[in-house]
Amino acid sequence: MPPPFAKVKIQGLYGLPKSHTQVTTAVLDSVTDYFRRHRGRVLGVTGAGVSVASGIPDYRGPKGTYRVYGGYTPILHHELVLQHRSRQRYWARSFFGIRPAFLAKPNSIHFALADLEHGGYLNGLVTQNVDGLHIQAGSKNVLELHGTLKNVRCLNCDHTESRADFQKRLEELNPSWVTYFRHMAESGEEPARRPDGDVELPPTLQYDDFEYPTCDQCHLGHYMPTVVFFGGNVADHVRSRSFEMVDGADALFVCGTSLATFSAYRLVKHAREQGKEIMIVNLGETRGDKDATAKLEASAEAVVPPVAAALGVSV
Ligand SMILES: [Zn+2]
């Protein structure tokens, strides 16, 4: 059941500015028409805003700046590749921080987008999210632009294994850390979590004794999560595929993202250069606002599930 329109609460969601468009029946009708007009030729582009309701935090604000967690900088790609100490710190924090990501469940937006694909309205999704929730919700044609937290891959030989299996190996290697984190969990302390599986632990904590395995195929390389970290690059084949998906669509439906990362924004730019219709639904300013043919200042949650319901594709 979609939420009653009059009671949709938009103001203050995600801690963003108060300016917003009221999601009226007329607004929802126009989004519904958009999908009807471009049936089967709409490409969805999603970001962190879609997963907030699943408990995955969003660390970018309206202008792509880091917000709320003053001073927090996500781990950088080159640090993880080059520095043993950075890897110890990353894996120790991720060892603890990954658990909620394993447990996160898709929300009404993920399900509605999957329904729109099954119902023949959406022909695919390009997501910046690394949580795997679109696939878990049943979306089929999904390109994970920044990879997925579900796997780790050897930097030397590309051997890939599941993050869940890797977690078991970390547990075996670090019994004292298992105890430490168990005590922390039991104490009710809830450290701030990051979308990349990182977690804020006490600044005085030392990670010197945290052990992580090298690759069990080549016995040389280090594992890295199969995600694009800040400072890393989207793989060529992923970038090409993302452009192909835009080429194969007549219209873009962008939701729950400020398009702060260039890898996502350039898809909007590419679509605009081809004269395609671009609808953006996001609470807060986005980098693509000037390129959009329609911008709806609203949360994806207030729009996508009711539209899927109106199109009769909700299951
Ligand atoms: Zn290897």
From TrEMBL:
The keyword Transferase applies. It comes from the Eukaryota. The keyword Transport does not apply. Residues 21-315 form the Deacetylase sirtuin-type domain. It holds the Pfam family SIR2. GO terms for molecular function: histone deacetylase activity, NAD-dependent; metal ion binding; NAD+ binding. InterPro entries: DHS-like_NAD/FAD-binding_dom (IPR029035), NAD-dep_sirtuin_deacylases (IPR050134), Sirtuin (IPR003000), Sirtuin_cat_small_dom_sf (IPR026591), Ssirtuin_cat_dom (IPR026590). Zn(2+) binds at residues 154, 157, 215, 218. Keywords: Metal-binding, NAD, Transferase, Zinc. The active site is at 146 (proton acceptor). Gene3D superfamilies: SIR2/SIRT2 'Small Domain, TPP-binding domain. Belongs to the sirtuin family. Class I subfamily. This is Deacetylase sirtuin-type domain-containing protein. It comes from Coemansia erecta.
